[in-house]
Prior knowledge:
By secondary structure, the protein is an alpha/beta fold. It is built from 12 helices and 19 strands. It folds into 2 domains: 7-179, 3-Layer(aba) Sandwich (Rossmann fold); 182-390, CoaB-like (Rossmann fold).
Amino acid sequence: xxxxxxxxxxxxxxxxxxxxxxxxxxxxxxxxxxxxxxxxxxxxxxxxxxxxxxxxxxxxxxxxxxxxxxxxxxxxxxxxxxxxxxxxxxxxxxxxxxxxxxxxxxxxxxxxxxxxxxxxxxxxxxxxxxxxxxxxxxxxxxxxxxxxxxxxxxxxxxxxxxxxxxxxxxxxxxxxxxxxxxxxxxxxxxxxxxxxxxxxxxxxxxxxxxxxxxxxxxxxxxxxxxxxxxxxxxxxxxxxxxxxxxxxxxxxxxxxxxxxxxxxxxxxxxxxxxxxxxxxxxxxxxxxxxxxxxxxxxxxxxxxxxxxxxxxxxxxxxxxxxxxxxxxxxxxxxxxxxxxxxxxxxxxxxxxxxxxxxxxxxxxxxxxxxxxxxxxxxxxxxxxxxxxxxxxxx
Length: 394
């Protein structure tokens, strides 16, 4: 419940995409937010305010419902933790930028001290008009955050940039507003995740069972905390941060070591890299060429994270063991041998399995006691971010 008890005002303007506001409202409530709704006069041409009241559990603020005796007015509805305009019309954007208060909708925005997030939805020409562009620039300079519209076939039939951003992008912007951490804002965090696939021949590979879920949870967490995330993954995702794909350990190494790193950056090596690489056979190994048992030759793989030598970069490794008794000693040895600042230890057992939604991690650093955290991977990722932040105090 990331947004538990946060008071959010969802402002809906006149747009053919008004119906997406219902999904935004529902998504915010599922995250624990206490969501209020206000509708512009333009929105009332598309939808009855009572439809939003049924989902919001609060009275909707609009020209038809304003009631000072019952607290339904622009002053009361301005007292929020965050205001989200989605969809936002060009009319409301321009009026807000220039401070016109000729309706209850804009009056509420002007009266509020809450942060504002705007997701426009309009015809491309209207959004690209110099007046609108100046208004958007003015609002951005005053701290208003904009979520860029997307390019689609618009309701008018034109193809252009003007459709409301994806719901997930809007929800992520809201999460970031409440979760942002000044320490991580603008800091580069590079995370590797997933499994490597090493070729045996031209058609076969040897790999492992890593699901990549922990690394994805980490990438999401650091993004929401405000970091500049570079996610190097063997799995494909639709994410709002930079994603680089790899297959083999060589591809992973190339992608990682070509990233520009500076002191203060963080590298989290959560990818499950093959310890041994097969000597690849050209072509395809035929069953007819094998007498019962196939023998493969392997060579020891290079340690990728040890190749990161940029001074001041914090390096965090992951280690998987199957024996609890020796796991901590082995992790401490890897911490020293690889020159890591910390290592995250997983011990595979009946509870912790590949692909599970929960995890248990022992966080081991050079100068601190071992911290063990467990739970859903998403919540563990945020706890790890706090522990990694503490490395900068060592």
